[in-house]
Amino acid sequence: MKRGRVVIVLAIVTGTLIWVATKGLSGNLIYYQTPTEVLHAGSSIVGERTRVGGYVVPGSVQASGAIVRFVVTDGTTRLSVINTGAVPALFSDGRGVVLEGTYGADGVFHSDTLLVKHNGLYTPPAPGVTPSSADLSGGG
Amino acid sequence: MTRVFGAAPGLVRASLTVERGDLLLVRGPNGAGKSTLLRVIGTALAPTYGSGAVLGFDLALERDEIRRRTELLGHRTRLYEDLTAAENLRFACAMHGVALSAVPAALARVGLADVAKERVSGFSQGMRQRVALARALLRRPELLLLDEPYAGLDAEAKEIVDAAIAEALADGRTVVLATHDLQRGGTAARTIVMDQGRIVG
Amino acid sequence: MVSSLERVAGRITAPRGERILGWATLVAMAASAVMSLVVSPPDAQQGNAARLLYIHVPSAWLAYLSFAVVFVASIAYLATRRTRWDRLAAASAEVGVLFTALAIALGSLWGKPVWGTWWTWDPRITTTTILLLIYVGYLAVRRLSDSPARRARWAAVVGVVGFLDVPVSYLSVTWWRGLHQGTTIRLLGESTIAPIMQVALMTGVFAFTLLFLYLVTVRLRLGRLEDRAVAEALSPRLGQSAEALLEQEASARG
Amino acid sequence: MTLVGQSVAIAAKDLRIEVRGRYALGSVLPFAGTLLVAFGLSLGPGRTLLAETAPGLLWLAVLFASVLSSRRAYEHEGEDGALEGLLLAPIDKAAVFIGKGIAIAVQLLALELAIVLLVSGLFDLSLAVAPLTLVAALFLGTIGLAAVGSLFGVLAEAPRAREAVLPLLVLPLATPVLIAGVRATALATAGRAGEAGSWLGLLLAFDLVFVSVGTLVFGFLLEE
Fold first, then answer.
1. Percent residues over pLDDT 70 in chain C
2. pLDDT tens-place string over residues C182-236
3. Which among B46, B48, B50 has CB closest to C234?
4. Is residue C212 within 8 Å of residue C62, measured between CB atoms?
5. Domain boundaries defined on chain D
6. C240: pLDDT strictly greater than 50
7. Do C130 and D210 touch (CB under 8 A)?
8. How far apart are CA A117 and CA D14, in angstroms?
9. What residues make up the domain containing A3?
10. Is C222 part of the contact surface with chain A (CB cutoff 8 Å)?
11. Pick from A14, C88, C136: which is nearest to D173 by CA?
12. In whole angstroms, how far apart are CA C197 and each of A122, C53, C108, C192?
């Protein structure tokens, strides 16, 4: 194997990877849209399947049977959601969620998949509290 | 000088020295390891164990030097079916850095000048072997490795092979010939007999 | 550096080293089990489900560790052509495939109670799956050739190219979607995990790393025996004496 | 002769064989067509769903075509031991990788022309919105796929090779091409070509890595 070629290839590969990695940090393409982006896009995305991410506004959750209504926010904009899909045990006020569904003409996001975005925070429970919300006995 | 020692699948152990400009005849029953031996010398097969030098070049480290100076004519003709006889040879020229002008003469020598522009897919096995032989004649390799070159050839074509061997030897080039054909290779300086992957005599 | 590495590896892979390593692994695994199941409290949000962290994260760590070892060993093989590097790459790839599959399965089990789904096309999950498939392909390539030298060379190329594909595919998938949490333990800045849980997690990572070393060591020993058996089958009459003969030949040449 | 000259000679030889054998036209294209029709049938008649999935289907067809073409590129080398001829020629072995890669890429580009027209007809993909972005995505993606195929296609000629080995290697490795190609195509056809830049960049990065690494390591695959 030619030594010069090894050097050139190494330079190209590392250069390329660095270039793409630093470029990737600007991240113009994301898993989900924010409520602001959804409302901004308005009628142009009505009926189109998208993902929305945000925090559940405390006190906004209303459950009626299998349907859950709540409001998500990104801090600036609020978006009403009607979720018909399964609700994970960790779902609660203030929690980060990602919703899959369509933005309706009624200005409400109709979601059929609700995913709870875990914040990567691991802490022991407060004294005297027994956490049972997501006990393994139910989840496998 | 060519010198090989080692083992490869189908070749248990072989140790061998050939002087430059000699004809070495390799005999033995089918499956004795003749082809493997020639393929190891021609760098088509790396020995599992062992080492060697061909024309003074290390078998493991200087393969391109050996390849530049060696021609291995094996069982398989290595031709492209969808190319014509001339195109196959021209491609070989490009790969070996030989001038394209050598092609017509080589084809004429094996008696295929008339069908130079026909595709190999229409050729009989004998004609294909002639094309492969013509390809071997494009260059003047210092070491010519011939593995059963007479198999499937008619009397006329066998004469062409003999003439090619004689010419190479007259030039002071080395030839290693593996064959069953007892009438051939009469001028060999040395004969070895192989059996079950070993040189037995 | 390579030679001293080999010397250390040689000491570990001796029968005594292997036995000691085996016991150390067992003790560490037991300690990890106690730490994760007894000492560590349940998580405030997830409850006992969070205990999956203590095997999911170490499994994922082993997946990446073993493929990095395959990458380095593959380069070393191509540079030196020493069979031991090939055996190391093969052993590490097998262990890696096992733990990648385990990490994905555990992640899926965990995802159900926490995220509310068994599976989602999240970057980390997707790239880990791609990684698994690439190394399943690696193991398939290892079965392609009868010639040990050729098999080693082919596998080494796949080991190098496959690993280089990981950053590119990671980026492509990251740009595409993102649900998986970020890094929990950070070298710089504050960790988002309680200290006691972090200790339990580190114990798990340590125990699994020992397990990796032990499995690779055992696999290396099997690989050596396998190679010897193949060499003997290849040249029955030559047997053990082949290497002696070759050394004679080499010294005569040198 | 130089690396370039050798590569061109090999590419020219391969393309001549392909043109004469009509494998791409006779087998790969009908396969891609069948695949697209089968996708269309399996997805049902909903026009919006078909239009949404069209970029993905387009790239899946291209990906499978690349596997078939790479397989074929080495098949004619194996028929009568010609690969050994390449091995024994005193050439830079990288020339085989580059030459075959060029030949595969040229075939793929020709196939893509037909596949794109088919997809546009069957699934209502609007090609005219940002044709340059679309062409750039296809071109860059093709180079990457041809590089992977040219690198690992040689393994399919192994004595004990299984039919599944090549797709098993190529499909996971080509994931970045698939994702980036699909995203760039989707943006180009949706009139948002301006956002496709980073995807094209990713395709370029993939090409750079695979072409350069392939040039370096191909010899290890071919060498006996």
1. 74
2. 444 434 445 567 777 778 888 888 888 999 999 998 888 888 888 777 766 655 4
3. B48
4. yes
5. 3-223
6. no
7. no
8. 52
9. 1-27
10. no
11. C136
12. 8, 10, 21, 10
Give the pair of three-digit tokens for residue C185: 């333990």
Q: Which residues contact residue C224 at a Cβ distance below 8 angstroms, ignoring those fewer than 6 apart?
A: C87
Q: Is residue A134 a part of any domain in this protein?
A: no
Give burial (CB, 10 Å; 0-12/13-18/19+) of A14.
exposed
Global pTM reads 0.84
Contacts of C95 (CB under 8 A, 6+ apart): C62, C66, C212, C215, C216, C219
Residue of chain C whose Cα is closest to the Cα of B53: C253
Note whether B193 and B28 are within 8 A (CB).
Answer: yes
Region D87-112: mean pLDDT is 94
- Say which DSSP state C194 is in: -
Distance CA C51, CA B190 (A): 78
Q: What is the CA radius of gyration of chain A?
A: 21
Q: pLDDT digit string (tens) for C140-168?
A: 999 887 777 888 999 999 999 999 888 87
Residues A60, A69: Cα–Cα separation, whole Å: 8
Q: How far apart are CA A115 and CA C116, in angstroms?
A: 6
> C185 and chain B: CB distance < 8 Å anywhere?
no
From residue C124, how far is each of B132, C62, C166, C167, C217 by CA, in Å? 55, 15, 11, 12, 29
β pairing state of B23-27 and B190-195: parallel
C189 touches chain A (CB under 8 A): no
Domain count, chain A: 2
Chain D residue numbers with beta carbons less than 8 Å from the beta carbon of A25 are none
Mean pLDDT of the region B68-72 = 91
H or E element at residue D197: helix D197-222
CB neighbours of residue B189 within 10 Å: 14
Do A105 and A80 lie in a common domain?
yes
CA distance D212 to chain C (A): 11
Longest dimension (CA), chain D: 58
Q: In terms of domains, do A47 and A23 share one?
A: no
Based on the domain organization, do A67 and A20 belong to the same domain?
Answer: no
**Residue of chain B nearest D85, judged by CA positions:** B78
Contacts of residue B12 in chain C, CB cutoff 8 Å? 235, 237-238
Residue labelled with tokens 């020993």: C221
Contact of D195 with chain A, judged by CB distance below 8 Å, is answered with: yes
Same domain, A69 and A94: yes
Point out the residue among D1, D6, D82 whose CB comes nearest to the CB of B80.
Answer: D82
Q: Which residues of A touch C57 (CB under 8 A)?
A: none
Dihedral class, residue D162 (left if φ above 0, else alpha if ψ from -120 to 50, else beta): beta
Which of A6, A13, A122, A129 to mutate: most C Cβ within 10 Å?
A: A122
Please tell me which chains touch C, using 3 or more CB pairs under 8 Å as the contact test. A, B, D
Q: Which residues of C touch B5 (CB under 8 A)?
A: 249
- Note whether C133 contacts D168, CB cutoff 8 Å: yes
Joined tokens for residue C175? 């740009």
The CATH code that applies to domain C2-6+17-224 is: 1.20.120
The set of chains that have 3 or more CB pairs under 8 A with B is C, D
Task: Please give the structure tokens belonging to residue C12.
Answer: 């570990």
CATH top-level class of B3-76+130-199: alpha beta
A97 and A49 in a single domain? The answer is yes
- Residues of C numbered 13-72 whose beta carbons fall under 8 angstroms of chain A's beta carbons: which are they? 41-53
